[in-house]
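Q: Structure tokens for this one, please.
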Amino acid sequence: GCSNTATVTIAVNSLPTVTVTSTTDTTCLNQSVNLTANTSLDVTSINWAVIGGANLGSGNPLTIHPTGTDYCVGVTVSNLNLCSARDTICVHVNQPPVVSISGLSAQYCANDPCSPITGVPAGGVFSGPGISAGMFCPQIAGAGTKCITYTYTDPVTGCSKDTTWCITVNPLPVLSVSGYSASYCPTDGPVTLIGS
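A: Here is the predicted structure, written as tokens:
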């Protein structure tokens, strides 16, 4: 039989390359983390997206604010030949501690003595007007609305959380006495004093 041969030249375009790096692989909830796509020189487009979630745009580096427990992001890059490559990275998210304040009343008088207050978990720092040696002192704080903040940092994760409690320090009443003279004689009669 008859036969013939045909030759076809096919161009196999090179793939781009991409490797994602981050400023940290562990962070605290909603703290910022920078991701960088390290690409080959032929890359012309970059697209970031949360794995199974929203598109994050084309910025490089990209700043994210991770949520959840493990926050995973993928990046897809393309070159002029429309060939693409992909890489992913996950950032573990530590949750903030749960903090609270006890020992504070809703209201105080301006001359009340200092009262001890407690922050949970122990080991945090109190701040605000009238705070002295782990106590709230109305006489130091003065009259008005006063807000006390307790801040705690988890020594294992390094994550911090604070809580604030606002209280009212009531001013002391202003007293006056009238109806008397500056001096009297022993024989003077009774005097009626008026207090207000």
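A few notes: The chain has a mean pLDDT of 92. DSSP finds one helix and 19 strands in the chain.
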